[in-house]
């Protein structure tokens, strides 16, 4: 790969805006065909609170997600899902059964929680 290709790939990556957020509120979404939870995520002073819908079957009780930090892809067009508009994409990876496992900042990092709105680099 030449330096031009590497530079282009880096520029593409820099356009992706992934931020740290803290789940401020979460509700079950039983009428969802795919999504199971509605999350209101605090993304800091710059972005504020945004809504996300996600399929989080292993996370059960929605109140257990409140206060947890998550990573979100921001800057996407809002997406209508049932009666809700999803404003950000909450990032997850599949477990061995294909169910979502949230992507989160390192909970053991020195200094504790990452500030809401922190950008992935």
UniProtKB/TrEMBL annotation:
Keyword Ligase among UniProt keywords: yes
Alphabetical keyword list: Ligase, RNA-binding, tRNA-binding
PROSITE patterns referenced in this protein's UniProt entry, alphabetically: TRBD
UniProt-listed Enzyme Commission number(s): 6.1.1.10
Any single Pfam family the record assigns to this protein: tRNA_bind
Claim: Ion transport is one of the keywords in the record: no
Span of domain TRNA-binding: 12-115
Record-linked InterPro entries: NA-bd_OB-fold, tRNA-bd_dom
GO molecular function, a single term: tRNA binding
Domain of life from the UniProt record: Bacteria
Signal peptide: none
Designated name of the protein: Methionine--tRNA ligase
Source lineage: Bacteria, Pseudomonadati, Planctomycetota, Planctomycetia, Planctomycetia incertae sedis
């Amino acid at each position: 790969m030449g330096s031009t290709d590497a530079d282009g790939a880096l520029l593409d990556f820099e356009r992706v805006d992934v931020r740290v957020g803290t789940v401020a509120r979460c509700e079950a979404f039983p009428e969802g065909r795919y999504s199971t939870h509605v999350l209101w995520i605090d993304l800091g002073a710059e972005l504020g609170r945004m809504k996300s819908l996600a399929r989080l079957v292993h996370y059960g009780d929605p109140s257990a997600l409140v206060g947890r930090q998550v990573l979100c892809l921001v800057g996407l067009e809002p997406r209508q899902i049932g009666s809700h508009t999803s404003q950000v994409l909450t990032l997850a990876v599949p477990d061995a059964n294909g169910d979502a496992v949230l992507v989160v900042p390192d909970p053991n990092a020195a200094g504790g929680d990452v500030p809401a709105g922190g950008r992935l680099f």
